[in-house]
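Figure 2 data, in text form.
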Amino acid sequence: MSFSEFTQSDYEVIERDYALLKEAARKRCASEEELQVVQKAFDFANEAHRNVRRRSGEPYILHPIAVAKIVVSDIGLGYKSISAALLHDVVEDTDYTVEDIRKLFGDKIASLVEGLTKIKNVLDSQAGKDEAYTRSLQAENFKRILLTLGDDVRVVLIKLADRLHNCRTIEFMPEYKRDKILSETMFIFVPLAHRLGLYEIKSEMENIWLRYKEPDAYAEISALIDRNLSDKKKEIDRFIIPVEEALEKAGFQFEIRKRVKTPYSIWHKMQTKNISFEEVYDLYAIRIIFTPDSSSNESERDQCYHIFSIITGIYKYKPERVRDWVKHPKSNGYEALHCTLLSDNGVWIEVQIRTKRMDDIAEKGIAAHWAYKKDGYVSENDSEMDKWLDKVKDIISNPDVGALELLEIVHNDLVSSDIVVFTPKGDQKSVQKGATALDLAYQIHTDIGHHAIAAKVNMKLVPLSYVLRSGDQVEIITAEDEKPKKEWLHFLYTRHARNAVMDYFRADRAQMAKAGRDIVQEQLKAIGIHPSDGMFRRMALQMEVGNADELFFRYSLGLIPFDAIVDMAGQKPVQQTKRRWTFPWSRKEAPAKPKYILASCCKPIPGDAIVAFKQPDGTISVHKKSCNVAESIASKHGDWIVTPQWEEIQGQDYLVRISIRGTDRVGLLNEITRYISLVMGINMKKMVLGSEEGIFEGYLDLFVHDKDVLTTLMGKISGISGIERVMRTEL
């Protein structure tokens, strides 16, 4: 922030932006008195932030106005939340106190502002030395943030609006701060927005993350979307015409909206499914949003199925791509019926069928969910959101859960999805997707889990490791003399079940930890590594398991492989003679001889966008900015972030993998390898390529000097006759 007298132009911009906010607030306020509270909050904040500017140079008050606009327009909250959004930085950035806010605006607005002030203090805090590293001040403080979910969820909703606007203006931040904010955003705030049903906010945050973390991919995918959309626009319009005619004939009141998949969602699908842009099926979608006929004998759900039967009578559809979130809504309250139809011109188009109520909840999430409940609309699915909030409150209020563990638990819970299974009596149970029969046993009761020996799924006997599928009917078989086994930890999926088994073995923790330490020390010495207590403390910190005893306890349980311990004990830093780095050190001067470790999880190469972390032992690990491991570290230890820049050093090569797919022909393999070796002079470490039914597919592991060389190589291979796809993939 900076201070300078506002100009007439500044006052005009402030007046313009507030007028837009007031217009939006007027539609949401129930009375003129409520609107007057919003006006009073603006006047107060405007005066408090007078002549204060943001990094961008614009008047600071434009930020609270923008946050309030998101709160009312994108989330749908009322006048108290709008007022709190306008006031959210006053206590932190001026001499006013929460008590001043309470006297002027009452207890509720004051408590919202106080909650937001605490969150800002937490996220802006920086951990100190040594002890702070081990307990992670950032994670401890984030626990306090999550506790606001148990107090007033509106605090978190307003914070999401604040974070979204900060992401929109992130270009004005220094790079290390930008990396910290984006990592926090992707690790916690994006999943939180998803769980609270705020789809538009989630999508915008994801796209901003991609634009800064993978700028080349963002630009390339955005250009491909624009090019494809201009080509396919007329086809989509033609696709809609018979749908409109059929629904009108059936008497439905509806509107149809067009949607294109976002750059991030396309990029994510390409990465996770290892496919090209052209192979993304659901690039285009239309939404059919209808008002249910209250006089009809059909329920709201049945009317969705009626529309489905009409449109699938016009176009062919993919049965395996039907998603029925009307019968079984997502845990964030999302309800819709999705299907993918084939247009007459051979383009696959996703169709989403929603009622007006479903669409409101899909767009505004939990706020719309509550609004419909307040208006007397009760659905059998209404409790899903409330159940999830209760579960989170239970997790975060548990005094035995450490801060780092809590952060991981909440992140995993936020990004998980649920499936529905049934008991032998037909009772419905929601379980995490990926859960096993044993996970379900522990979910029912810890004693049932401890004594489980097998399960019957759909009347057939299966092992406890069986991964449940939606719709399965499950019976758990127990035996009185059965006890938990260490091997269970290798296939259990849910945190609750894993913790229950680990708690069972904790009675022998000291003995198991000692035995584990003795074995590790002996095996390390056998391969020429001489361990020390300091080395084990560093390992525990890197593994985020608390201390060395916990490290050896988990090793004895088989949760930490010996190879991982060897990797951490024998990490070799990048030699200083091989590379020079420059750092914009923001808090301390750079050490004379820092040691850099190129992360094995993402294997960055020169030209990749990178982020680095100064570890407690002084080494600096370097990751790709989009690396999941880097995101996790940055979200927990934002104060470790440093931002090195690649500087080319001739003669050093890096291992990468490219995946290739195409139509097989005689001489194709020879043409590819000849170009790589003879024309480009690139070393190949490994080649796994094969042909089946005329399709040529596989991957090559190569040593390249930098990203430019890799890009050139991939472009040339793409031009070889028969090649359909060339992609850089994870090793």
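Caption note: The two ends are 44 Å apart (CA to CA).
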